[in-house]
Amino acid sequence: MTDPKTLISEEHEQASEPDINDLVSAYVAIRDALSAKRREFKEFEARSKEDMAKLEIDLLEWSRKLGVNSFKTDHGTAFKVDKDYARVAGPEGWEALCRLMVERNDFGLVEKRVAKLHFKEVLAEELAKGEEGLSPIDMGVEYVVEEAIQVRRA
């Protein structure tokens, strides 16, 4: 595989009017190489995590059999921990959680993050009402639109 970076020659970098075809070609080649490496790593990561999970099960079983909480070895210490998780229990759970937050006036039960698509709808509705000078900041939201380039394969 050709190194995508070699597609951008020194001559090209110094040209006053770049060949757009070459720029897009180089961009697509780099993106393809990045995707291939990402896919390769994800496969490696999945296999590795699967292997580690099997080893964790073995170690947990041995700790239970031996009645110990940890194993100190020349390569490191394996020890038991309790993992806990908190997730919204489906649509009914979300409604119950919202009621609880309102009743307790405790909105710290959820992470602070704006749902971008819904916010865009609310912003459009508010602007449609004709509010002069209304800004997302007035609504407590920093909303930024940046101009960028994306490349679609031919």
Please describe what this structure looks like.
The chain is mainly alpha-helical. The protein has two domains: 4-68, no CATH class; 90-139, no CATH class. The chain is 52% helix and 5% strand. The chain has helices at residues 10-14, 20-66, 90-104, 116-128; strands at residues 70-73, 76-79. Strands 1-2 form a two-stranded antiparallel sheet. Strand 1 (70-73) and strand 2 form a beta hairpin. The two termini are 20 Å apart. The relative contact order is 0.06.
- Biggest sheet: strand arrangement: 1-2
Shape type: flat
Q: Strand fraction band?
A: 5-15%
Q: Sheet with the most strands?
A: 2 strands, antiparallel
Number of strands: 2
Order of helices and strands: HHEEHH
In whole angstroms, the N-to-C terminal distance is 20 Å
Q: What number of structural domains do the residues give? A: 2
Low-confidence sequence ranges: none
Give the overall average pLDDT. 88
Task: Kindly provide the radius of gyration, computed on alpha-carbon positions and rounded to a whole number of angstroms.
Answer: 27 Å
Structural class, from secondary structure content?
mainly alpha
Name the features:
154 residues, 4 helices, 2 domains
How is the topology of this model organized?
Layout: H1 10-14, H2 20-66, E1 70-73, E2 76-79, H3 90-104, H4 116-128
Antiparallel strand pairs: 1-2
